[in-house]
Amino acid sequence: MPRRHGSLQFRPRKRAETTKVSFRSYPELKEGPKLGGFPGYKVGMLHLIAIEDRPGRPTTGTEIAVPSTVIETPPVNVVGIRAYKRELSGLKPIATGLIVEKDDPLSRLFPIGSGIKNFDKAMEAIEGRKEEVGSLRLILRTNPQMAGGLSKKVPELLEVPILGGSIESRIDYARNVIGNAIRVMDVFREGQLIDITGVTKGKGFQGAVKRFGIEMLPHKAGKGRKKPGSLGSRHPPYITWRVPRPGQLGYHKRTEYNKRIMKIVPAEYENGVPIKLVEDLNPPGGFINYGLVRSDCIIISGSVMGPPRRFIMMRHPIRPPSYELGKPKIVHISTIREVSS
Known about the structure:
The chain is mainly beta and 341 residues long. Helices cover 8% and strands 36% of the residues.
């Protein structure tokens, strides 16, 4: 049987339930308190010229070209808080507090009537049982209408933990940011490594050659070339899960570790509406299949899963390397879009 190349790590290879992805775990931070992650929307790719500062590289100290991805990160609004206690069976909620106005965009997700305001009552319950609190999380609402390349207005409702510091300091942090907006520069810094999760491009139902990379059979194969040479032995009398078979390819949730933030580009706002970027990154005519970037954005080295406009979730690195990197030295950012003849 031809050798199969596809990984058996991700099974079953089925379509993701939703593009609103989240992380199952977050690392512990020494500094803080601060938000554990931040959402964004994939824009597209460009390349920049930077000085190689990673240790032990043959090109250390010289200029290199870095293919990078732009992710637009509009500010998120803090609409609530939720505290959990740790038990043997997992996390159990203690209290949930929300402050949602009547005309909040969350009304596009669920009916809120005249608004929801039970934050103070929830904080009293949390402070009375703060010795039981094992995880304190903020409830965030995204602002997709601030992103230049999106036409959607329905926000995502997220739950992101507060990392670093004591429980008392986390409670004070939550009390200070409730009802306010948090920007990406309040969570991440230039040069640090982050983890990214998202849903990959969907490619539909594909055969075993494209799905697992097996070799094609010789041209003398009379019943087809793009199929496995053998489906296995006669006994056991069934096809095992190790045999490459056709099926869904793409549209899977995937996580990539230790992607470096090369640059954070802030935007100017007036009455909650983005006016312009401090440093314009838009190529002539905008990014392909996205448009113009208007809100805060970050540039990440390397590629990011999914097509343009895909929802992306970022967090602090859960398995960072032994060395730390400072702010990258960027020489030039290319915004020229190549057009094939």
